[in-house]
Amino acid sequence: MPEGASRPRVTTCLWFDGRIDEAAALYTSLIPGSRILERSEYPPQEGEHPGGESVPEPGAPLVIEIELAGSPYMLLNGGPHFTLTEAASIAVTVEGQEEVDRLWDALTADGGAPSQCGWLRDRFGLSWQIIPSRLNELLAGPAAAAVNAEMLTQTKLDIARLEAAAL
């Protein structure tokens, strides 16, 4: 990199079809050390988007930049052209069953849905992995195969059951 040049900034952009104010508020309220950084709005426009749908109202959110525990994300209110899938997820490693339960319950509430092995989809369609740090320790141990087999039977991860499988 040339001297005096700034480093590139890398941010994950997540495409939504509306409700990014609500999503940003929820995500930053759940993950400690998180915050909303910037918000931009759709300017006044006329006509239609190239895809044929109408232009959002002026003042509707266009982009909201957030940090989740120091990691940057951009929420784009891009319309219905693309949808969120499990091909991309936010993985959150937490300490203890209480924190697994807290995040799981909040993210599956109001239309979210559990999946398998600690994965879920929130009410906006974004996929998350809620991973207790103890799982990583157990998977690095001598009973990794038994722990992995137990994990594959679970939706929300249960630390006690994972530890029992390691015995």
TrEMBL record:
Pfam family, one: 3-dmu-9_3-mt
Domain PhnB-like: 9-131
Gene3D superfamilies in the cross-refs: 2,3-Dihydroxybiphenyl 1,2-Dioxygenase, domain 1
CDD domains, alphabetized: PhnB_like
SUPFAM superfamilies (alphabetical): Glyoxalase/Bleomycin resistance protein/Dihydroxybiphenyl dioxygenase
Residue stretches spanning the membrane: none
UniProt protein name: VOC family protein
InterPro entries reported in the protein's UniProt record: 3_dmu_93_MTrfase, Glyas_Bleomycin-R_OHBP_Dase, PhnB-like
Coiled coil region boundaries: none
